[in-house]
Amino acid sequence: MFGIKLPRVETEIRVAEEISAGDRSIYAVIELSILKADDGKALGSWLVPLAMLIIEPGVQYAVSITGEKMPLEAILQLAPSLKLVIEKGRESHRIEVT
User: Fold this and answer.
1) Which candidate, 7, 11, 17, 79, has a CA 20 to 30 Å from the CA of 63?
2) What is the DSSP string of 50-74?
């Protein structure tokens, strides 16, 4: 149509840096969208918070932004890279008995 190319939207799920609160680790899961021109320049972007992953000693769970608990499997479907975060969190929250 007259040689006009429409911008495209690239979307991915990201995990924010760890937030420590006492012996809890909290990770925000967000959807990042970038509107890009045909030449690759960013025209705009927006973030949509999806959920929080919470790792405590002995338990890991997710809470959606609407406040509902989410099965851990559901959040892993959103952001498969969280498997590494969960494993790291389990290691750092392991309690050693001496």
Assistant:
1) 11
2) EEEEEEETTEEEEEETTS-EE-HHH
